[in-house]
What we know:
By secondary structure, chain A is of the alpha/beta class. Chain A contains eleven helices and 13 strands.
Amino acid sequence: MAAAPMVEAKALVKRFGNVEAVRGIDVQVRTGEAFGFLGPNGAGKSSTMRMIASTSPRSDGDLRVLGMDPDVDGPRIRARLGSVPQQDTLDTELTVRQNLQIYGRYFGMSRAAVRRKATELMEFAQLSDRADDPVDTLSGGMKRRLTIARSLVNDPDLLLLDEPTTGLDPQARHMLWDRLFRLKAGGVTLLITSHYMDEVEQLCDRLVVMDDARIVAEGSPSELIARYSTREVLELRFPPGEQGGVAERVAELGERVEELPDRVLVYTGDGERALEQVHGRDVRPVSSLVRRSTLEDVFLRLTGRTLVD
Amino acid sequence: MRMSSTTSAATGAAASSAPARRGLLLRMLPAPLYTGRARALLERSAMVYSRAWLVFVSGVVEPLLYLLAFQVGFGKLVEEVTGPGGQTMNYVAFVAPALLAASAMNGAVFDSTFNVFFKFRYNKTYDAMLATPLGPLDIALGEIGWAVLRGGLYAVAFLGVMAGFGLATSPWALLLVPVALLVSFAFAAIGMVCATFLKSPSQFDFVQLAVMPMFLLSTTFYPLSVYPEPLQYAVQCLPLYHGVELTRGLAVGVLDVSMLGHVAYLLVLAAAGAYFTAKRLAGLLLR
């Protein structure tokens, strides 16, 4: 049983009419890991997530979640999943506490069990002092925390988080990440989609990069960075209109040079040395920055585009 | 319909995934559609209304106001009318059971269109439910069930007042309550299917457009015989007509076999409504 993967997809396809939202992907998620789907909006992450959540039938290919087929055992699979959808679906007619209690009842838990669980989860989500407030009065970050708390009501084996921190301020994001780390430490398998590379880098043991309904790379964050990028990146910014031709002039200073609308990126093992050489060529950026490579650079390398516009 | 791939792939074995209690429906229907937890939705509705129980008062009062208007006003002008079995009867006693059926219809339609529409379109309440083991038929039955409970409550209150006014003259009148439940179920089920087709709140006018004529024309205020023959057939197609026939007959204790037909009509409507609601929810939310 321990060897059975949490999720196993082979040549998984999702079609909406003539549109192929997912074009034959292979994925394996192991028990206890945090697994990420990284990609821009429209890459097929959410469609994949919904198929795994057993709320969207697959169009083709094979899918096993917790060793079961969602087409046959949907309710049994969902009984062991937690799901944090992209858009909050909290029950606006109920209070914070009631949201947690009734959700537990949907899972068939006893009244006593949901009462106990609601109290525990409000503690976890730091919402105890808002227990009897209607959810409409909560801030965006609080609603997100409540959604995550709600997804834990059935003690899920697998937690699906679709863009968990989109639209949150940095403080709220870090608080959410902290909660997710704790869950992972507690043995919950996490499946996270995001178009924030820092989120995936922080949270995930392994990830797939999705673009245009396909998987374009797979590995741990550090593996992917080592495989597709250099150790360091030199960013050069120029005043508007003065960037033209720069990329060619610094081309051989790095292993690779990317030109974005607002800056030029030089991929190199030693950013400081490259910057000296840039100055030596009489190229004068208004600002420069040497940093480590991130998954954003991996994505740029693989697709020629940035993740977040 | 798009959901066919989910349901048709489901086997009987899948039903074993359902929770402990396994009723007839559970054995008949594939697990992805129904897991036997519709009661959880009733509990939810009870939670919501525990803070807004005053709305029940309006549901009880409205039909009573109608009744009062007829008792003190209209009834003075029209004193007698030919009722069930050809007997001559007091006009208010003729209208009262029909009003009971009509109020069961109104309450159910309101509950299942307005309330359902906002949960379905805007609040994503059903999306959240479908992420749990609940299936679309659990949702349909749970929501319809709430409308039925409300309808039953109003019917009991209304029947009490009818008895007080001396308008229920037969012990059979007690059966007005289960009939009101059946009428509520049928209209809630049909109303919920319709709610899944509504795109914006302005389209509620269409619902009114269907309900208002039904209320006025289903022999609520006068016997079927006032219509010319072709129109009589049309009126007999209206669902509320069948509810009115049942309540009016039972109120004075005039029973006949045609009542079984009326019951069957409403039962079919109820079952079809619940089934197609579940299909619509699955087609729209589980795609």
